[in-house]
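Design review, sub-item: ligand-bound model
Attendees: FS, YL, KQ
YL presented the inputs for the S-adenosylmethionine complex:
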Amino acid sequence: MPCISAKELLFWKNKQLSKGGDHQSFAVLLDCIGGISTINLNLLGLNPDGKIYLKKNLDYLESIWEDHLLNSTPIQYLCGKTFWRDLKLKVTDKVLIPRPETELIIDIVFKIFGKKSQKLLFAELGTGSGAISIALALAYPLWEGIATDIDKNALEVATKNYLDSSKHSNLKFYCGHWWIPLESFKGKLDLVISNPPYIPKNTYEKLPKEVKNFEPKIALLGGEDGLEHIKEIIQKAPLFLKDKGWLILENHFDQGQKVKQLLIKNKFTLVEIVNDFSGIGRFTIGRYK
Ligand SMILES: C[S@@+](CC[C@H](N)C(=O)[O-])C[C@H]1O[C@@H](n2cnc3c(N)ncnc32)[C@H](O)[C@@H]1O
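KQ shared the predicted structure:
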């Protein structure tokens, strides 16, 4: 294990950041590859003469940082890990890197169901890395969850993340197109969540290269107007939800009103657009009758 002084590490860190990139990405590199958490790093600032052990040497860390800067490869893919809420999740280029704004879905669930809820059945459509379902399965050990995805490689990542983060067995993983894997749960679901691909075709073509060149197209593209998948999910939701079951959807920044109308047209009540931290109507929720 390479050992260096705190002063040396902090000097090296500033040098790397002067080449470009942001502090958050650098923190992912230092934690996931170097083995130094942000808390440890902050403590080092208080004791610059202290020694620190790294999991990998600085040359190795620097080569990853330079790859990130040169090729715009997301640091999470280079490190194979990301942070989401209080989870540290494996990510590969087969899954979308779960976004900070999506973390709010868990808070919406807490608001609807409270923190200590009785047994219920939830499903997540398009689980990717498993972030949402795993956070819910951990927060509610009495709940049973089904996380689905069309991509079996994504489900492998999600399953590994679940096994690495939970001692329980309250989450199952099914492969298939939206509702198809849930045929045997018709009329039985209390809650369905989805952050489906919702980027309109034109916008997709213009996405920054760190997204378009690396993250799976299948996780992003929502057809011509971005609403193709959202429409399918909403139209079939009444078949699968229990009476008074909830549907929580993430949508693109300007789709809230359209998604709201789709929910109302399909007999949802208590339909509401929920803002993210930037005041954008990022989520649309409703209760089936
Ligand atoms: C925007 S990503 C969301 C991933 C994860 N839930 C999150 O919030 O980070 C959408 C996910 O839907 C999956 N997906 C795309 N088309 C699908 C389909 N037809 N049926 C089921 N899942 C699909 C993708 O593979 C991807 O994992």
